[in-house]
Amino acid sequence: MYLAVKHLHLTFVVLSLAGFVLRGIWMLIDSPWLGRRGTRILPHLVDTGLLASAIALAIMAAQYPLVHAWLTAKVVALLIYIGLGMVALRPGRSKGVRVMAWGAALVVFGYILTVAITKDPAGFLAWQGGRA
Predict the structure, then answer these.
(1) What is the model's pTM?
(2) In DSSP terms, which residues pair with 131 in a beta bridge?
């Protein structure tokens, strides 16, 4: 059961990242697709699945934030990613600010991935000379 939930979680990770990148590109080119109803609703459905599968994995593996440093780092980084994504994809700020927030959000997403892979709260920040 654990492997099935893990694969589901990884599928949601890919869908979430692909959707964020696509919406970021639409933001860059001022596409009307960014304001469409489906574009506003679908990411919430994907991210709900992502969060639910993450909670299920944490419970199944008995690994919890505030107990395991790497998982705490992922949760904190996730909150930063969400904040940056909100700045990037919501109108109201200058294009320059939105682009910088989008780029920073992608870096934070990369950090979250490397923390998940290495189970090290430093993630890619620990890499020195190509070694983690």
Answers:
(1) 0.89
(2) 128
Specify which residues 93 forms β-bridges with: 91
> Residue 126's closest CA among 75, 73, 76?
73
| C-alpha span between 24 and 18 (Å, rounded) | 10
Those residues whose C-beta lies under 8 Å from the C-beta of residue 48, and which sit 6 or more positions away, are: none
* Tens-digit pLDDT string for the chain (132 aa): 999 999 999 999 999 999 999 999 999 999 999 989 999 999 999 999 999 999 999 999 998 888 999 999 999 999 999 999 999 999 899 999 999 999 999 999 999 999 999 999 999 888 765 555
Buried b (16+ CB within 10 A) or exposed e, 6-22: eebbeebbebbeeebee
Tokens of 50: 């992502």
